[in-house]
Design brief:
This protein is an alpha/beta fold. It is built from ten helices and seven strands. Helix 3 runs antiparallel to helix 5. The termini are far apart. About 16% of the residues have low confidence.
């Protein structure tokens, strides 16, 4: 009993291990798959309303139903926008509202579109020169665009890279399609603002739609910019020292201040304002005099001057004689003591 139970447990464990082992390899593989680039797809249906196309209206409606029933052979996806233009003597771009494609409502959408085409006024010929400029503008402003033109083949398309090839097919198949009351269906495809493909279909054959080329690889992310060191703070330079003036003079010793000039005693014959000239050279320079020896006093010739000097000299002489007499006549000291004499007596 235990052996079958152990065997069943072993098998379940082995299966679980196998699943985990497979997951380890599948998860990195799924991450490595590049994500598909998604772009907006637009479809534009253009119907010519010339007199000749009225004879081909039934075949046009039948071809249109077949295209929408197969979602344009799988090229028309849910959410893709659909627009409708008509052109004859005039270009109509707003007669049919723009709508998104819904596969579940394909029958209703096809019926409404066929009814709109049948209600147009068909007369005269179509003017292709009205269609092409606006069509090229839409091409330039679309990421991915598919244009289906239903025409009679008697006009001339210009302004595309496929003008010559289209004209050649018109020339070769015009009579055949006219006798069969069948239209021409031209399919243009553009991507990122440029025509990338063109195909022509001769109903009742199924529509031929060229494939889009692969989208270009997105540009690699920009490489990180190297870190830039912050700019160093500029060194602020002080204003230059500008010295204006003369060269400084070496310091001089302070001037010697001299005593005020001595006023000489007034003598007879000398003015009261007479002063003794300074003998200091610096002082003499300050007062504007030349430092010279003082001039000798003028000799007095008057008798009064002589008498004064004589009196002064006599007085001085008498004083000197009196001092000599006083010194000579003073009393002498008595004999000195024995000790004094012994000291003064030479041995």
């Amino acid at each position: 009993m235990n052996k079958p139970v152990h065997r069943a447990r072993f098998l379940r464990c082995a299966q679980l291990a196998a699943l985990l082992f497979a997951a380890l390899f599948l998860i990195p593989a799924l991450r490595a798959q590049p994500t598909e680039q998604t772009v907006q797809s637009r479809f534009l249906f253009v119907f010519e309303t010339s007199k000749e196309m009225k004879l081909r209206l039934e075949a046009t409606e039948k071809a249109l139903n077949t295209m929408l029933a197969t979602s344009l052979r799988g090229e028309l996806h849910a959410g893709d926008s659909m627009g409708v233009w008509t052109f004859g003597q005039n270009l109509q771009t707003s007669g049919y509202p723009l709508q998104g494609w819904n596969p579940d409502a394909a029958v209703t959408i096809a019926s409404n579109l066929v009814e709109h085409v049948g209600q147009q006024h068909y007369a005269k010929t179509a003017r292709y020169e009205l269609l092409q400029p606006l069509l090229n503008r839409v091409v330039q402003n679309s990421e991915r665009l598919t244009v289906l033109v239903f025409c009679d083949g008697e006009g001339k398309i210009s302004g595309t890279p496929y003008d010559d090839a289209i004209s050649q097919v018109f020339k070769e198949k015009l009579g055949e399609q006219k006798n069969a009351h069948q239209p021409f269906v031209i399919v243009f495809r553009s991507q990122l603002g440029q025509y990338v493909g063109c195909a022509m279909t001769l109903p009742p054959q199924q529509v031929n739609i060229p494939l889009f080329p692969p989208l270009p690889e997105p540009p690699p992310p920009p490489a990180p910019k190297p870190a830039i060191a912050p700019p160093r703070a500029p060194v602020v330079m002080g204003q230059p020292l500008i010295i204006i003036g003369k060269k400084p003079v070496a310091s001089l010793p302070p001037p010697v201040t001299s005593p005020p000039p001595v006023v000489a005693p007034v003598a007879p014959g000398v003015p009261n304002n007479a002063t003794v000239p300074p003998t200091n050279p610096i002082v003499a320079k300050i007062v504007g005099l030349t430092p010279t020896n003082p001039p000798p006093a003028p000799a007095e010739n008057s008798s009064s001057g002589n008498n004064v000097f004589m009196l002064v000299g006599a007085g001085l002489l008498g004083a000197a004689i009196a001092l000599v007499l006083v010194f000579w006549l003073r009393p002498r000291p008595k004999d000195a003591s024995l000790i004094t004499r012994s000291m003064n007596d030479p041995k």
